[in-house]
Amino acid sequence: MLELREITKRFAGVPANDRVNLTVAPGTIHALVGENGAGKSTAMRIAYGFYGADSGEILVEGRVHRFTSPHDAIRLGIGMVHQHFMLVEPMTVAENIVLGLEPGSPFALDLKSAEARIRALSDELGLAIDPTRRIEDLSVGQQQRVELLKALYREARLLILDEPTAVLSPQATAELFTILRRMRAQGKTIVIVTHKLSEVLDISDEVTVMRDGRVVGHRRTAETNAAELAHLMVGRDVLLRVVKPAAQPKAPVLGVRGLAVTFKGGEKRLDGVSFEVRAGEIVGIAGIEGNGQTELVEALAGLTEGGAVSGTIELDGRSVAGLSVRQRRALGISHVPEDRHRRGLLLDFDLQENAILGADDRPPVAVGPGRFWLRRDEIRRKTEKILAAFDVRPPDPERPARALSGGNQQKLILGRELDLQPKLLLVAQPTRGVDIGGIEFIHRRLVELRDAGCALLLVSSELEEVTALADRLLVMRRGRIVAEVDPETTSMEEIGLLMTGGSAAA
Amino acid sequence: MSILLILLASAVRQATPLLLAALGGLYSERSGVINIALEGLMLAGAFTAASVTHYSGSPWLGLAAGIAAGVLVALVHGVACIRFKADQVVSGTAINILFLGVPALLSGALFQSTGATPQVPQEQLLPIAPIVLAFLLVPVTWYVLNRTPFGLRLRAVGENPEAADTAGVNVARVRLAAVLLSGALAAIGGAYLSIGQSSLFARNMTAGRGFIALAALIFGKWRPVQTMLACLLFGFAEALAIQMEGVSQVPVQFIQIVPYVLTIIVLAGFIGHSRAPRALGVPYQEKR
Amino acid sequence: MSFLRQLLFPLAAVAAAFAVGALVVLAVGDSPLNTYALLIGSALSWPDGIGYTLFYATPLIFTGLAVAVAFRCGLLNIGAEGQLYIAAFATAWVGIVLAGWPAWLLVPLCILTALLTGGFWAAVPGVLKARFGAHEVITTIMMNFIAVALASYFTQYHYKPPGDPILQTVPIGENAHVARIGALVPGIPERIPLNLAFPLALAACLLVYLFLWRTRWGYQIRATGANPAAALYGGIATGKQIVLAMSLSGALAGLVAVNEVLGYRYRYYDSFSAGYGFTGIAVALLGRNHPVGVILASLLFGALLRGGLFVDIFTEHVSKDLVMVLQGVIILFVAAEALFRGRGEKRVKSV
User: Fold this and answer.
1) Has residue C111 been placed in a domain?
2) CA–CA separation, A439 and A456 (whole Å)
């Protein structure tokens, strides 16, 4: 059905796809797996005409085609459901589906006939979507089904789904898989991009594994297992292992009781969360992304926007729930945010001005009445100290943060936060988009920090990372903590089961 | 009774240029391109229409030339904003400044005046047609937005251009078309001022009407019918100010600021919330 | 090196605008060479040319700084025009009402009035933005019209000399006057209205520079402008920064009153501003939102305003409106920066 031959694509000189070969047989569900940044999404966006490849060929049903835009792919019967839905929220389902392919004349849009067709398509697969409703009134799962309908309306015979379960609850995931199987029964071909092995084994007929922009293996799903796929994905037998002595937990630093974050319409993205973190231990939070981890960290840091926080948050026995971000920082809470570009850095500012973010009011950097003046020499000294201690390369304080690689940016942030000698470090997705060397460095520093007596709360969507680093592991699902486990003695499968609510067992 | 009628008729006349410009702004802004250049576009239309009518003797030719001028100037705004990702507010400001200067400069060369065109004879004016057109365009605009493929695409690129792009819609082309339309409509509004309401172009004759039109557009929540009502309200305030000049104790300035105060109140969310198109002001970068 | 590169692009924009201007001059039937020679010659002659150029540059430095400060906080202050109008009226009002007060008290009081009134007028859109998310571009435009209407109302109904056909207030007290440079520096005739507002403008540039790059408040304002989400993460109250930056911006715009009311006309005069607030946008853009750049750009535009008058008189067809055209085209070119980079810059995030 679809074949990619020797596809190469570079972004700013860095290869995202390096001679990728992929063959998808008609009428199958084909999983494309790999870690974050392995090049899966890039390959699929090329297959959908969203990016142009630098070299290589795309074959659809045995014939070579040149794609200059998604239009070309759509015409050949390829549809794509993006990880972030491509829907216009204030418009209706039908309007979204016909967009770009409007029925009727240029002077009169024929939505009625489109609605009838959408209803028929929806009924056929049991999607239960009303074409006259507005997107913004639909749930995430329903929106995803609208995306499926959008592709089917365009008579897609091959559907590419990019990380379709990342935002879904376990039930919604199960429903999605039922729908996908029905579609396969109708003769559709499906490519599902994911990094969750349990899902691969559950749904796919064949699987292709990518690593560092290359295809490293292709298997029939029935003839492989999670261990083999994991091995292919990470390229080594031993998964991330961190050598660390047993924790010596001391007095509790962070105490959280009954923490909830309620958004408009009573939506609770965090509900009744209680736990504590002691000095000298790393408490990990495992869970599928979007299950309240972000809200938890933001509530603790004082960054909740648009939602109401209730419950108690105590630092060293003192309530900090009502305090501002700055006041919490002053009390010793440091924070490595999950999205360093959005939150962690001032990308266009130089490293010096990034090194004082969140610490611009502390002497010796700030002096004078009201700590009004900033001392350039002190800022430089502080920056150079951080760059040296955290091996940020190149160690040029006047370079803009944008010019650093992901790993070095992350080391800068970590260095900045640790320089404040926190009592509590909130650290989210510490190694996302960081190279292997950087990952090991960051992990080592986190363990050192723990052994120096800091309390750490670690959130990561990489299950291996949290299990490797955490001394105690809390599992979150749908805004609640559903279990506490010992990462030493609990298997990944068990944790995965807890994360998904038992519906998608590996 | 008759005073009320006179007042209402005057309000409709005052509302007409506002409505034309506001509907123009509506197309542009619903597609995601901020158009604070309405003032400059109106001036371009007003000057060109009066000049060409003066030379040709035909107001229709004048109107057509005015529209052409508006489209041309809008093209500059569109290309700067869409192709070169210029800041839309800054580009609009540039055009407003530019068209304070251009008509004055040209009128000096053409008519040896300091910014005005010669008087156009009474019989060569278009006092009614633009009014009819303006109010006809309200249902037409509603229909275009909600019942045509172009309108669907226009709304989509203004709300979520990436979604429209992945659905195969050419975002740049739709936006450019919308900006050009806004240039044409604002220019008709300007032409009405110079060869409809009065009989010549005078320096800075729009006197902020482009901005009032923008205010009406926001007050009308970027929807055609509500925008028309806002224009009528603002037109009424203007008509009232004219009628009361010298007659009443209420200073005209207080009536003149009504549209601006109302707009600020609406923007602050005190009277219903006015939600702008989500991608308004954000240049779209195609990913290819 | 990098300083020169910073200069290169604005110079290219100015050169391109002059090229477009030359075409316009040709189109209306004059010689571009003569016109530009006249423009530049009359702006740089001693002492009148330079004196007037500096005089015209003064309000532009204030408004350019005003726009630049707001811009550093990620805000576009289109309202400098209204801020300077309302401030000018308030300043004149203090100068009229307290005319009998001694100069050492009255002048600082008038300057303070200019600062506070301009600051207040800009703080309103700042609060509306921080509190309700109302877009500052629209609110400042609206505030412009309200300012002009209010000042015109008070002038017309309360402070106009009886029978005066011109819409202006009665004169301010002599004790509120700011000295002209000509009265202090020998060799400069006193007819040139260049006054102490000019050194005040230069001082404002220095202070703004120190404030933005050497103080914590300035850092917080810039961090908010660069990345509000990161600023919040760093514990910066972004709403407060928005109000602060707008207030400061408005206060700077308000200082135009010192030049125009206290140093030149000695009264409030309706529609005295030749679009200084809007030209301030051009100044800030061309000057890359940096105080030094603002000074350079203001000198350029000041020279254009001065030279424009001569072009008006001494050419057959070209009027001083050429200056407006040049301004507009310069802003367009600066805004469409990508034009000079050949193609729209393509920034693709890696996946």
Assistant:
1) yes
2) 17
Instruction: Answer whether C350 sits within 8 Å of A11, measured CB to CB.
Output: yes
Question: Percentage of chain C with pLDDT > 90?
Answer: 75
Contact between B108 and C132 using a beta-carbon 8 Å cutoff = no
What residue type is B46 in one-letter code? A
CATH of the domain at B209: 1.10.3470
Predicted local confidence at residue A497, as pLDDT: 74
Query: Cα(B144)–Cα(C312) distance, rounded to whole angstroms?
Result: 47
Selected for mutation to probe chain C from A372, A376, A380 (highest C CB count within 10 Å) is A372
Is B153's CB within 8 Å of A106's CB? no
Q: What is the pLDDT of residues C11-42, one digit of tens each?
A: 888 999 999 999 999 988 889 999 999 999 99
- Please provide the DSSP assignment of A82-108 as one string: -SS----TTSBHHHHHHTTS--EETTE
Q: Among partner residues C220, C222, C233, which is closest to A303 by beta-carbon distance? A: C233
Contact B164 A88 (CB under 8 A): yes
Residue C257 included in any domain: yes
Distance between CA atoms of C182 and C184, rounded to whole angstroms?
5
Whether residue A372 and residue C222 make contact (CB cut-off 8 A), yes or no, is: no
pLDDT of C133 above 90: no
Exposure of C23 by Cβ count < 10 A (0-12 exposed, 13-18 middle, 19+ buried)?
Answer: exposed
Residue-level pLDDT at A435? 72
- % of residues, chain A, pLDDT over 70: 96
Q: Which of B62, B39, B8, B71 is nearest to B199 (CA)?
A: B62
For residue B13, the enclosing domain spans 2-273
- When divided into structural domains, chain B yields a total of 1
Predicted pLDDT of residue B255: 83
- Per residue in A97-134, pLDDT (tens digit) is 999 889 989 999 999 999 999 999 999 888 889 999 99
- Among B152, B169, B286, most A C-beta atoms within 10 A, so best to mutate, is B152
pLDDT, tens digit, for every residue of A351-367? 999 999 999 999 899 99
Q: What is the mean pLDDT of residues C255-283?
A: 93
Asked if residue C77 is part of any domain, the answer here is yes
Q: Which residues of A340-355 are buried (b: 16+ CB within 10 A; e: fewer)?
A: bbebbbbbebbbbbbb
Cβ B7 vs Cβ B240: under 8 Å: yes
* In contact, A297 and A428? CB cutoff 8 Å: yes
Q: For residue C351, tell me if it sits in a domain.
A: no
Q: Is B163 inside any structural domain?
A: yes
- What are the tens digits of pLDDT across the range A191-201? 999 877 778 88
Residue B283 has a pLDDT of 87
| Complex-level ipTM | 0.89
CB contact (8 A) between residue B76 and residue C327: no
Q: How many folded domains does chain C comprise?
A: 1
Stronger pLDDT, C240 or A10, i.e. the higher one: C240
Residue B97 placed within a domain? yes
Task: Kindly report the nearest CA distance between residue C132 and chain B, in angstroms.
Answer: 5
Residue B92 lies in a domain: yes
Q: What is the mean pLDDT of residues B203-220?
A: 90
Tell me whether residue B284 is in a domain: no
Helices C136-154 and B209-219: crossing angle, nearest 10°? 130
Determine the pLDDT at residue C74: 93
Flag whether the pTM goes above 0.90: no
Q: Contacts for C103-109 with beta carbons within 8 Å, 24 or more apart?
A: C103/C175, C103/C176, C103/C177, C106/C173, C106/C175, C106/C176, C107/C175, C107/C176, C107/C177, C107/C178, C107/C262
pLDDT over 90 (residue B115): no
Domain that holds residue C68: 2-346
CATH number at residue C185: 1.10.3470
Chain B residue with CA closest to A46: the answer is B288
Write out chain C residues lying below 8 Å of A346, CB-based: 223, 226-227, 230-231
